[in-house]
């Protein structure tokens, strides 16, 4: 009995140790699975992912993708490693069949990697040919795929939209432009698309005019008739513009339809409150009040694009109305030079709006070259800001920064010591001098025949007013013969 009681604990101890080991292992596995399920069973998926990574890398290289971009692309899109390489290859073939271009293939794959799903792409293989558009661009096809993938739309939705646009009379180029600029048109009902066309035709536009407007400004398809377009035309009418003027301006630049309600009113209010020279104001309104207000809107948008607020943009244009006379391309050139080359902040324009109103090539660049040279050579003690660069007059800037340093004259340009070629041959000025004639005796006798009393009267008259004149007359009378006025 004693021997049996001594042998049982060893067996129980072994069972307990095995049980504790198994429990520990299971707890560790379950704990690891609960914290990170992806790491629970990583041995098998890791090997398959590595094989897929190698296969996909070689596949993309064969289709012309840059090797330097493939690794980063696959790292940022781990979902592609779950696809079969054979399916990815079929998807790439379908994309090339739609548009055989390496640029198109790269842009579509990089912008929307999930498009390589063969189950999704197989449905689109023949749908683009059914749409009946021969000049589909790469961006239009890419936008259709992105919208369809994001909102889970099928090929039939895109086909319905394209057929609707073509049925309303829009040309193929207009349909392509709409899909490029506003691909969400795929999700719109046919009635909403028709309402826009009917509204524009009721105003007085012809069918061809509507097609041109939509082609040049395809984003207008996003505007609702009741919420945007009708209130906008009501504002034009309240401002006193006739429908003929509005139609002409819309045909001239369809982006007019993109103005917010009340924006043109604000722009015209600012123009009428300008305090500038009459010549500048006349040049601004020379193109008409409607167009002048729209030009203000475009320049406000340009300034806001660089970071200025709506109020600051209006302040800059009100303080410097000469900026309205410059093209937007020139304004962008000045601002890019201010930010990138001169290293100033865009908010400096609020303090020094004159920068946008001066000539870029004749004033901004030469002055900056002079200041930059003086700063690099250590000849300027204090830093010259934008105000000190633009505000001084031409002569004052020359006396401060150019005249003391002769080497700056060539940088300044205007005062370069260059020989000015004469427009006339040398010695030509001698031909324009009046001829000298010698006084004859007959001329002297004619002068002497003047009545002396008249000369004396002239002397008395000019004696008080012009002392020099009376002296000259007396000196001349003294030289006359005595019998000439006796």
From TrEMBL:
The keyword Transit peptide applies. SMART domains: Mterf. Signal peptide: none annotated. The keyword Transit peptide applies. Keywords: Transcription, Transcription regulation, Transcription termination, Transit peptide. It comes from the Eukaryota. InterPro entries: MTERF, MTERF_sf. Belongs to the mTERF family. PANTHER family: CGI-12 PROTEIN-RELATED, TRANSCRIPTION TERMINATION FACTOR MTERF15, MITOCHONDRIAL. This is Transcription termination factor MTERF15, mitochondrial isoform X2. The lineage of its organism: Eukaryota, Viridiplantae, Streptophyta, Embryophyta, Tracheophyta. The gene is LOC113740071.
